[in-house]
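Let us begin with a simple case.
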Amino acid sequence: MNFFRMLFKRKKPELLRENNWSQEEWEQHYELKSAGLERVLGASHPMVGHAIIPFEVGGAVDMYYYPNGIPGTGFATMELLQPDGSGPIPNRMGTYELVGFTKLDYIQSETETPFSRIERRMCGIFTSIGFYSMQAKLEPGETCEIPRDNQPNTCLVFDEYAPDGKEFYIGDQKHGLLLVTELFPEEMQYARNHGSQFLLEKLKAAGHYPYSDMDREPVV
């Protein structure tokens, strides 16, 4: 196992004690979750985008990268579902982790790149939605706006992600993957007026689904 993966999966002892989990229980849950994500998203990249301030205490989510599935790079969270099965308020999928995609290939660079910009943007989106998911039921097909200081709101649509019928399991327990896709404001309005499924069909027909890249034209 990669050194970074081993290092970043370890939780602070106080967090484990608070939830009555042993380090062994946490690591087993981590390994099973990793395997479940890879069955759906393809093999993960060995590097993890580790948050300086952990999500559990109000920081950002860690970012996990999947460059070996569909073209481009997948992103996923690993911190919403807990070893006891708790996590986001259950929706029709049950409890879940978040996923998103870019058409860009994974690049590790010391300088800013198009990939690093969308990776940081998706991290911010995942973090906001991750916290919100603990307070509200978020269903596939719903739209959402994230306020941004002195900038237009970020517009999103949710969908269940189970490509080719591949479902997300942690061990023998079925969970869900909630796909988070960024939209143009007019696309979100179209989804609200006509239904998200019709918008998602337009995105698929144009080759934009399930990606959140915004260097494209609106489909409505």
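The second case is a distinct protein. As before, the sequence precedes its structure tokens.
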Amino acid sequence: MAAAQKAVELDPSDGQTHLVLGMAEAFHAKPEQALAEFEKAQSLAPNNADILLLISWSIPMLGQAQKAVELADRAVLLNHGYPDWYNQALRCAYFFGKQFEQSVKYAKLVKEPFALDYAYQAMSLAYLGKPEEAAKAADEVRRLDPQWIAEQYLSDTGGASDAEAELFVEGARKAGLAACVKTEALSKMPALIHVKSCDNERLKSAAG
């Protein structure tokens, strides 16, 4: 955060400095400040595909899923020969924009996929009503990261707005992935950013 703030101070007309500060603000759960920095970055570099796509990757968690899709579309138009990391940003933007076919497409294009890439595949396929394909992708998530939990992932990346958090967690449920942190593990995660449906799930489990 300090480095990004200093970069903006040194060169306030550079879109990339505002982008990085926005990403830092988002990670530290400061959505209003993050969105303001992203707006500045976009206005200063409206044709920089990398900057547009990195904004697109960040703003779904801040409740701007539709704008993320628009920026993702523009970034691809600006950079047809994009590098592999674009695929990870695109599968995220299209997932939260509920364009699940597109999310699956780009998740499958990732050359060296992580557990999260398979998680996006599994969740998108589950939403598309393809349980067998979703189950295969979910198996890959568990193989690569047996401890993967949707709620914990969201928390570790700074949390998400309610609608996007619920879309992500419900996708995990539909795909047969671990959606919520177990009650007994909460004491070890004092900084966990809770998802509302997970809290309800834990309450029902405790009551029943």
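The chain has a mean pLDDT of 96. The two ends are 44 Å apart (CA to CA).
Keep these points in mind for the review questions at the end of the chapter.
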